[in-house]
Amino acid sequence: MKKSIKEFALNLGVDDLGVAAAADYQSPRSPKLDTIFPGVKSIVVMAYKEPSSCESSNMQIAMSGRLDVMAFSRSCSYRMSRFLEREYGGTAMATPASYPMEMSMETMGSIGDVSLRHAAIAAGLGVFGRHNLVIHPKLGTRVIFTAILTDLEIASDSPCTEELCIHCDVCVEQCPAGALDEENRTDVGKCLRSSQPYGIGNSIRFWSKFADGTPEEKKKMVKGVDFWRMYQAGFIGFQYFCWNCMKSCPMGQKQEKASTQK
Ligand code: B12
Ligand code: SF4
Ligand code: SF4
Predict the structure, then answer these.
(1) Which of 242, 247, 248 for mutating ligand 2's site (highest number of atoms within 8 Å of CB)?
(2) Closest CA to 233 of 66, 40, 16
(3) Which atom from ligand 3 is nearest to the alpha carbon of 130?
(4) pTM greater than 0.90 (yes/no)
């Protein structure tokens, strides 16, 4: 079964696929998988190469590349879920690349329903690097994941045992926010202010100021660039303005020539 699932994914254009037994998924801060799907037995994780547009200093182009991967990954997740149900009679539930996600005071919008890094690691698709991102053996750091929860029992992949981070600390030096200074922890607040300057923090500041403003100040605020950028992020979703840890890591900068097929 595993071979044909992987073949199906690679034929869709997915870069790699790994499988983990649900019991091997361990993410201390994320919800238990059976709160999402009580019968879950396996997690199918798909890996997609981040486009080179992340190298551009034009943030619209960099983000557009991410939107492409996200749109593609949605289609692949849907098709893979249908394949698992149609071919093997399983139940399959796809989880998104980034959002929708729980937006509550408990999670502060920073915890996914399924932690895709922990899922990818359990499925043998890589290991954590100094930047707290998963490094894939062939795709390097430039990789994005989605996962499908299923009640099918599929043979798990063995964990990746290679040490892929070369401890050069380039990611730490290139982080404009100092969010990676402490090992094994990303300072979410610092990262967010740099990577999503028109995200929820700015939105709260903007609307709080707006609420206290005079009619003249309010008119001026909605004609300002801050509002325009928030307006755009409001309908495209999270809009990243920083890719430094992902693009500066030497792992994955070269275009991979060999197939990721095992
Ligand atoms: C919310 C979120 C964010 C938030 C919060 C990040 C955070 N601390 O978790 C913010 C906005 C800050 C963010 C930033 C980024 N994100 Co983000 N994000 C997510 C999201 C939606 C949920 C993450 C989550 O659940 N975190 C909560 C739990 C898992 O974190 P945690 O248990 O505290 O674990 C943290 C540490 O303890 C450490 N850690 C845990 N165990 C271990 C073990 C070892 C050995 C080590 C070294 C570290 C370590 O790693 C985590 C980092 O803080 C995921 C998608 C998803 N559903 O998983 C994408 C995701 C993690 N993001 C991703 C990316 C690429 C980014 C950015 C580069 C932004 C961009 N331009 O794309 C930055 C990178 C920041 C960084 N270097 O850590 C990718 C990572 C891909 C990869 N190759 O690993 C993901 C998986 C999206 C995807 N579909 O692929 N993100
Ligand atoms: S996305 Fe930017 S701000 Fe956030 S950790 Fe990476 S380099 Fe730092
Ligand atoms: S930039 Fe260097 S230290 Fe950072 S994750 Fe990549 S290899 Fe490791």
Answers:
(1) 242
(2) 66
(3) 5
(4) yes
Question: Ligand 2, from 245, 248, 249: best to mutate by most atoms within 8 Å of Cβ?
Answer: 245
56 ligand 2 Cβ < 6 A: no
What's the distance, Cα to Cα, between the start and end of the chain in Å?
15
Domain boundaries, the chain: 2-165, 197-236
The residue length of the chain stands at 262
Span of 15-24, 175-184, 209-218, 248-257 with lowest mean pLDDT: 248-257
Per-residue DSSP letter, 41: -
**pLDDT tens digit string along 168-187?**
999 999 999 999 999 999 99
* 63-99 pLDDT, tens digit each: 999 999 999 999 999 999 999 999 999 999 999 999 9
